[in-house]
């Protein structure tokens, strides 16, 4: 089955076919056959196929070099779009408005493409972007599950677009015309299972073209599944196995067939989550390359409600499109026009701003290509905002605002009241949301569905909760973003299962991420596809009459809600709110550590700059600055000077005004380790000690990690275990926790305690074959933990290594140097019989090529780094790699008698040859070791622009770049290991039942 | 780059008082729009997510108050009614006027935008003297109609406060849907001819949708549209290659004259296609029975299985009555299509004669185009030789 693992699996399957491996072992492909996959993946073949079945396509041509590209572009006329064959998420493509841009994009695209080809095509940015999800079986039965419309037209990649389902601006003829084209296309290329097809539709006529087709489950199909309640992947799997569509049963009604087309009676809005804030130099503009790292989906009864809900779900600190904590910047008309023409992540806020300025809908449409219908809806929100500010808050205005998706916070802000006051006022006036079901067929058939949402667009709940059972809700983690990803989905799902296994009768999930398993309605008893906001959770708690809520598995999102929920009378299931607060509050936490005689780096909390400066001067720079309740390192920073401290504190104040800033002495040259465990308040189960491969200062989410610890002494290990037991019992932890340590000169310091599931918990659980969250489910319910041998994790004689996955390629301009801010967007965990066995698999998994021979470029700043790289260089040399280095590094290496090291020149000196830029473009460099000067910890202090350029170019050309000495060391040792060994291939073993 | 200009228009016949009352006493308050008047009819719901222009001009909705389950309506406005195709058939509408007596929706788009739009939905309703109500919890209404069955309803739109008791009283005395006669209102009075050519197909108009006419034209035939009560003799006098019995409103047993015609067509083995009401009439003519469904089939997502080859098609449907499958056994008809969900009869075929019929709408409009092949089946019945022009 190739259609279920995204583009990676598809590419893999095509490769297996090419190499004749499928044939050799007699392996059949289930579902869409390789031929069909190729017909959609190769752009020219796709176009030919579409023309064969009467589906129009854009004029275009596949090219293999720049000359060809130039000729075609001249023929089609600029702007043209460059699309890359066989790649992920539109990676490497772009719109070229002139020849210079064309050169840049084509060069990048040819490299990113596995087959070295790009497509030059007419650009239809102002056309509507419409998608259809097709299901088809082996026997010719096919249906459309869902269609979707992109609010930001063809201009913006659908992954970065705000998307609604179903389409809103298409009439019946257009809808059916595209629907038929989708079915025709799917049938023609031989889709079996699921596919997504994307069309561009002229806003001025019923002219359309097919843009692309994905013969696999995709982000869009996940969205379509959640938007309709139709379990696409499940059905696709059945179909691949040979079932006919009409044989399969609608999983929601349990009586009607799965061979039908869902009818929605609500509007869904998908909103992407971007994390540009984490990449200082990244270009925020939206276009044909996807830049978002996650998404949310909101269900409502009008567009305004769905949109504002989706914005709240993003967890970016906004309460909706208007009336936010930080008021929108004001722009003059010219600036606004420019912003409407060049969309970035704030585009809809800019539309709102333009409407406030009195710019007409027509003009906004012309500039932005957003259909007037959507602009009109945004105008409704802007008008409601104005009305609330101008008039007295009466019941009618309040009801209207709630229907348009305003939160109590937004309304409160406009009328100078707090959200809880508004809550009281509206409840007194009887304004409460109703609970509606997603049932795939608009209430036409009776459906016992547990897939729910809340809206102000109705008057009647679809059902009432009548049972007297214990009812627990588990909070999910919201959108995937940097620092919060599938690990918390794993946590949420395992918590639900664990609670059920422990006898809880009714468990519901509240979450809003369409990419997750926790938002599958068959995981829990009731699924609320809803905002993770205090207001909405209280609404649900009141409707459900909840016994309590588990906040320990939803990452920071859920964790941050703990105090607010507790203060509003919600019982927190697991570690008590008071104990969590004791740990989150730096001073009380410190006090406990002091009592336990456990060390921690010197720190202090501040709300004034002058005190902060004094402290930093006393302990000495560098210092680590962060607000408490820190969001995955957001706004956390290592500060090297007083001036920087001042600048930073001004910014940090914007991030979390409710909590003071904490400054900690940053201990250079330290090791980092962490413990994932579970406690019932008296007993502690250690999952494992995990050691970071990079030194302290790289965010733990960006660091490679290893179990068992690879360099810690026995004494240090014992100390860590001892501290863990003491701390877990001191805070009466009932559930999962993660404790982070810093080891400096064999002294162990505690740096952080998180009383919740952590990022590394699934990794640890899989390694030790012990599901920590399953154990935690018993613990949160107050049950005693089972007896587990104390050093269970130390008895496993294999290695587990977790390697981060970065997406710098997609983020135009972003630097790839790591720091205390987390930047990785994913990770791979690999297990092996030895350290290098696991590591080589890990590196390959995240996309490093491990060349058997070739050339490495070394450029290191500072003598310390050069010194550290000496062993690495020696090893590489002895393995027969050719080494290149920039002037100073080369000089240093030759002095140390490394042997032949060729000097190359910086990108900023293009006239000096051989130049790094040329060598990179000519693919004469296989890997780069680039450890920046000053320090790996501080990106921008004295950062040499040239080094940045090397890294950036290399990323764009797909050459591995190793930016720390530790990574360079491991990388070269892995190359050495691979000379004499092969990686092991063993299945992951199941959890043991305890 | 070309910059397009999408026409937009604001709603104007809005913000009136509106009230919907059901036979069982349930009251729904909302915003009235369109024309200021009070109407009575059978409340039904349709689950299609697009196609309000087509649905509202479908004569099968005569005598009914139509509720749409999709909450956002009017987004793309209404196209120009005066535009006709080369045969003189309205291009974007299924008949010459709005057919249901009233429209019930959750939200009326206060602005329409579409390249093909000339007016807003409320404007169209106003022009055609039809009341509409929005702000209704249409899901709650649907659940009610599903569980209790379709029922009579009153829809009032007014410029002033509406008297609920008065409206309830009026609803009690209003003529019941089941007692109404629709044929006089929906059928053509005189035969009409579309297109030219030697070979023709007669369409018996029991409330025909324009899409049926268009599709028969597309087969290459001249279309002769005749009144519902035209006799078989008169029809056969045209020497048609085949006959289509159209869709239409109401109880099929009330179309006794059409049924008589159908009997003769079967007897004489005239290639015939029945659609919706036409299918029920053919069934009755063949000796089967019909019955009223609890809440009908109205939507665009209904899957039907072709029992000849086990293929499943997504169909567009709009019917309240149905052929009784058990009663088919005593006839010369066999099942052709069944509804995959509730196993109701969706198509029948005569065992010997050239008579076929479908309960769904192969002409779509609104709805999916997947079953256009049914028209080709008619052409096949007419015979390859005969069909050549």
Oligomer: heterodimer
Biggest beta-sheet profile of chain A? 7 strands, antiparallel
**Main pleated-sheet profile of chain B:** 10 strands, mixed
Q: In angstroms, what separates the terminal alpha carbons of chain A?
A: 33 Å
Query: Pair with the most extensive interface?
Result: A-B, 65 and 59 residues
Number of strands of chain B: 21
- Indicate the structural class of chain A: alpha+beta
Task: Kindly identify the CATH topology of the domain at 6-58 and 124-264 in chain A.
Answer: D-amino Acid Aminotransferase, Chain A, domain 1
User: What is the CA-based Rg of chain B, rounded?
Assistant: 21 Å
pLDDT < 50 runs, ≥5 residues of chain A? 935-943
Q: Which architecture of the largest domain in chain B per CATH?
A: 3-Layer(aba) Sandwich
CATH class of the domain at 6-58 and 124-264 in chain A: Alpha Beta
Tell the overall outline of chain B: globular
Describe this structure in words.
The complex is a heterodimer of chains A (994) and B (389). Chain A has 994 residues and is α+β, with helices and mostly antiparallel strands. Chain A is 37% helix and 19% strand. Among the domains of chain A are: 6-58 and 124-264, ATP-grasp fold, B domain (D-amino Acid Aminotransferase, Chain A, domain 1, 2-Layer Sandwich); 602-665, 2-Layer Sandwich (Dna Ligase, domain 1), CATH 3.30.1490; 671-796, ATP-grasp fold, B domain (D-amino Acid Aminotransferase, Chain A, domain 1); 852-980, 3-Layer(aba) Sandwich (Rossmann fold). In chain A, α12 packs across α14 (372-390). Chain A starts with 5 loop residues before the first helix and ends in a 14-residue tail after the last helix. The model of chain A is unreliable at 935-943 (pLDDT under 50). Chain B has 389 residues and is α/β, with parallel strands linked by helices. Chain B folds into 2 domains: 8-174, 3-Layer(bba) Sandwich (Glucose Oxidase, domain 1); 183-387, Class I glutamine amidotransferase (GATase) domain (Rossmann fold), CATH 3.40.50.880. In chain B, 23% of the residues lie in helices and 32% in strands. Chain B contains 12 helices and 21 strands. Chain B has a 10-stranded mixed β-sheet with strand order 12-14-13-15-16-21-20-19-17-18, with helices on both faces. Chain B has a 7-stranded mixed barrel with strand order 2-3-10-7-5-4-11. The termini of chain B are far apart. Classes of the chains: A alpha+beta (994), B alpha/beta (389).
């Amino acid at each position: 089955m190739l259609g279920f693992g995204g583009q990676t699996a598809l590419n893999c399957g095509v490769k297996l076919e090419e190499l004749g491996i499928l044939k050799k072992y007699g392996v059949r492909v289930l579902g869409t056959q390789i031929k069909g996959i190729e017909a959609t993946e190769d752009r020219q073949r796709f176009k030919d196929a579409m023309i064969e079945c009467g589906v129009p396509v854009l004029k275009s041509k596949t090219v293999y070099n720049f000359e060809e590209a130039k000729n075609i572009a001249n023929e089609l006329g600029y702007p043209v779009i460059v699309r890359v064959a066989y790649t992920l998420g539109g990676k490497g493509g772009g719109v070229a408005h002139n020849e210079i841009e064309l050169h840049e994009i084509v060069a990048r695209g040819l490299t990113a493409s596995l087959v070295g080809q790009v497509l030059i095509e007419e650009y239809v940015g102002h056309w509507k972007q419409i998608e259809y999800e097709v299901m088809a079986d082996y026997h010719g039965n096919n249906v459309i599950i869902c269609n979707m419309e992109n609010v930001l037209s063809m201009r913006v990649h659908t992954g970065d677009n705000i998307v609604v389902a179903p389409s809103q601006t298409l009439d019946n003829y257009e809808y059916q015309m595209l629907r038929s084209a989708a079915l025709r296309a799917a049938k023609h290329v031989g889709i079996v299972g699921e596919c997504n097809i994307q069309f561009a539709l002229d806003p001025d006529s019923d002219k359309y073209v097919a843009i692309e087709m994905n013969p696999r489950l995709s982000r869009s199909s996940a969205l379509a599944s959640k938007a309709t309640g139709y379990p696409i992947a499940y059905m696709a799997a059945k179909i691949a196995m040979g079932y006919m569509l009409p044989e399969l049963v609608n999983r929601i009604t349990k009586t009607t067939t799965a061979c039908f087309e869902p009818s929605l009676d609500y509007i869904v809005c998908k909103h992407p989550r971007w994390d540009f804030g984490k990449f200082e130099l990244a270009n925020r503009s939206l276009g044909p390359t996807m830049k978002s790292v996650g998404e949310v989906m909101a269900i409502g009864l009008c567009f305004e409600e769905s949109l504002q809900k989706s914005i709240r779900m993003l967890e970016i600190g906004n309460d909706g499109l208007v009336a936010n904590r930080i008021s929108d910047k004001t722009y003059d008309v010219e600036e606004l026009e420019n912003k409407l023409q060049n969309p970035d992540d704030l585009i809809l806020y800019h539309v709102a701003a333009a409407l406030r300025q009195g710019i007409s809908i027509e003009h906004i449409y012309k500039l932005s290509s957003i259909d007037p219908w959507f602009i009109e809806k945004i105008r409704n929100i802007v008008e409601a905002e104005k009305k609330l500010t101008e008039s007295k808050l009466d019941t009618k205005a309040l009801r209207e605002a709630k229907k348009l998706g305003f939160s109590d916070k937004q309304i409160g802000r406009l009328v100078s009241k707090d959200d809880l006051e508004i809550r009281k006022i509206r409840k007194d006036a009887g304004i409460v949301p109703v609970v509606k079901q997603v049932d795939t067929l608009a209430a036409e058939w009776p459906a016992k569905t547990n897939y729910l949402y809340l809206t102000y667009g109705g008057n009647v709940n679809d059902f009432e909760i009548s049972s007297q059972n214990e009812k627990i809700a588990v909070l999910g983690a919201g959108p995937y973003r940097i620092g919060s990803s599938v690990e918390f989905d794993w946590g949420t799902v395992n918590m639900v299962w664990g609670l059920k296994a422990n006898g809880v009768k009714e468990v519901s999930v509240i979450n809003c991420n369409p990419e997750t398993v926790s938002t599958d309605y068959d995981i829990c008893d009731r699924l609320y596809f809803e905002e993770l906001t205090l207001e909405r959770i209280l609404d649900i708690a009141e409707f459900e009459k909840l016994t309590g809520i588990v906040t320990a598995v939803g990452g920071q999102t859920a964790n941050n809600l703990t105090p607010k929920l507790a203060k509003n009378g919600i019982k927190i299931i697991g570690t008590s709110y008071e104990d969590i607060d004791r740990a989150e509050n730096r001073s009380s936490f410190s006090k406990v550590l002091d009592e336990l005689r456990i060390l921690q780096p010197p720190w202090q909390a501040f709300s004034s700059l002058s005190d902060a400066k004094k402290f930093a001067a006393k302990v000495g720079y560098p210092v680590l600055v962060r607000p408490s309740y820190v969001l995955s390192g957001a706004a956390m920073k290592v500060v090297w000077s007083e001036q920087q401290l001042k600048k930073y504190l001004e910014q940090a104040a914007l991030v979390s005004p409710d909590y003071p800033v904490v400054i900690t002495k940053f201990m250079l040259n330290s090791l980092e380790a962490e413990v994932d465990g579970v406690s019932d308040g008296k007993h502690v189960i250690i999952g494992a000690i995990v050691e970071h491969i990079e030194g302290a200062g790289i965010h733990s989410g960006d660091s490679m990690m290893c179990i068992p610890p690879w360099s810690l002494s026995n004494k240090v290990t014992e100390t860590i275990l001892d501290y863990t037991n003491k701390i877990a019992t001191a805070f009466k932890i009932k559930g999962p926790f993660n404790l982070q340590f810093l080891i400096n000169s064999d002294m162990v310091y505690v740096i952080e305690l998180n009383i919740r599931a952590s990022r590394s918990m699934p990794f640890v659980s899989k390694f030790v074959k012990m599901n920590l969250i399953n154990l935690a489910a018993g613990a949160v319910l107050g049950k005693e933990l089972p007896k587990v041998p104390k050093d269970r994790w130390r008895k496993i004689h294999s290695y587990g290594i977790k390697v981060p996955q970065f997406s710098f390629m997609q983020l135009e301009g972003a630097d790839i140097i790591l720091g205390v801010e987390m930047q990785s967007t994913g990770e791979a965990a690999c297990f092996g019989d030895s350290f290098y066995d696991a590591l080589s698999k890990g590196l390959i998994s995240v996309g490093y090529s491990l060349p058997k021979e070739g050339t490495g470029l070394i450029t290191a700043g500072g003598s310390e780094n050069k010194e550290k790289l000496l062993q690495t260089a020696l090893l590489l040399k002895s393995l027969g790699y050719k080494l290149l280095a920039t002037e100073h590094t080369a000089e240093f290496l030759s002095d140390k008698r490394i042997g032949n090291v060729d000097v190359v020149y910086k990108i900023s000196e293009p006239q000096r040859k051989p130049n790094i830029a040329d060598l990179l473009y000519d693919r004469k460099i296989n890997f780069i070791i680039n450890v920046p000067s000053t320090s790996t910890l501080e990106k921008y202090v004295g950062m040499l622009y040239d080094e940045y350029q090397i890294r950036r170019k290399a990323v764009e050309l797909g050459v591995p770049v190793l930016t720390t000495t530790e990574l360079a060391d491991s990388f070269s040792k892995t190359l050495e290991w691979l000379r004499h060994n092969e990686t092991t291939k063993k299945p992951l073993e199941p959890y043991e039942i305890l | 780059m070309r910059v397009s200009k999408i026409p937009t228009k604001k709603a104007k016949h809005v913000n009136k008082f509106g009230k919907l009352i059901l036979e069982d006493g349930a009251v729904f308050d909302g915003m009235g729009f369109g024309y200021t008047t009070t109407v009575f009819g059978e409340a039904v719901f349709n689950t299609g997510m697009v196609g309000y222009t087509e649905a509202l001009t479908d004569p099968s909705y005569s005598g009914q108050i139509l509720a749409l389950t999709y909450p956002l309506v009017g987004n793309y406005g209404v196209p120009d009614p005066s535009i006709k195709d080369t045969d003189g058939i309205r291009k974007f509408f299924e008949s010459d006027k709005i057919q249901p007596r009233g429209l019930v929706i959750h939200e009326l788009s206060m602005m329409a935008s579409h390249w093909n739009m000339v007016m807003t939905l409320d404007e169209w309703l106003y022009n055609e003297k039809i009341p509409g109500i929005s702000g209704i919890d249409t899901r709650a209404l649907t659940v009610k109609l599903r569980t209790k069955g379709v029922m009579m309803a009153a829809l009032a739109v007014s410029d002033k406060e509406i008297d609920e008791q008065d409206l309830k009283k009026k609803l009690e005395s209003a003529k019941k849907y089941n007692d109404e006669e629709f044929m006089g209102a929906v059928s053509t009075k005189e035969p009409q001819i579309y297109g030219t050519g030697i070979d023709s197909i007669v369409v018996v108009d029991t409330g025909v949708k324009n899409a049926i006419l268009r599709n028969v034209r597309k087969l290459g035939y001249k279309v002769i549209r005749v009144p519902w009560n035209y006799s078989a003799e008169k029809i056969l006098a045209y020497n048609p290659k085949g006959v289509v019995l159209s869709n239409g409103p109401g109880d099929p047993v009330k179309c006794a004259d059409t049924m008589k015609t159908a009997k003769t067509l079967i007897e004489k083995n005239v290639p015939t296609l029945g659609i919706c009401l036409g299918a029920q009439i053919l069934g009755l003519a063949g000796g089967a029975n019909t019955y009223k469904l609890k809440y009908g089939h109205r939507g665009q997502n209904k899957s039907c299985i072709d029992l000849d080859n086990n293929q499943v098609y997504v169909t567009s449907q709009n019917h309240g009555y149905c052929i009784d499958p058990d009663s088919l056994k005593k006839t010369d008809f066999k099942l052709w299509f069944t509804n995959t969900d509730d196993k109701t009869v969706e198509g029948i075929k005569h065992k010997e004669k050239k008579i076929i019929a479908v309960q769904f709408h192969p002409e779509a409009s609104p709805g999916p185009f997947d079953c256009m092949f049914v028209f080709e089946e008619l052409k096949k019945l007419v015979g390859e030789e005969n069909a050549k022009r």
